[in-house]
Amino acid sequence: METVKNAANYVSESIQGTGAEASKEANKQVAKDDDAKVSTRASAAKDALFDKKDEKTHDTKADVNKEAAKH
């Protein structure tokens, strides 16, 4: 039963990591947009950093759950 739980957690964390990655990329594009206001660009850059942290966190958790599901 624990293996099923770990597998489900792996899928969930993988999806969340992918979402954070997409958000990070979108924020990076806004931060690079010369037509956007400086405050908007700065906020997007900050958000991209937080998204990158979230992406790494979810990817790490997914890897842990993947390994746990194998045993």
From TrEMBL:
InterPro entries: Glc-repressible_Grg1 (IPR020100). Residues 1-71 are annotated as: Disordered. Residues 22-38, 48-71 have a biased composition (Basic and acidic residues). It comes from the Eukaryota. Signal peptide: none annotated. This is Glucose-repressible protein. It comes from Penicillium cinerascens.
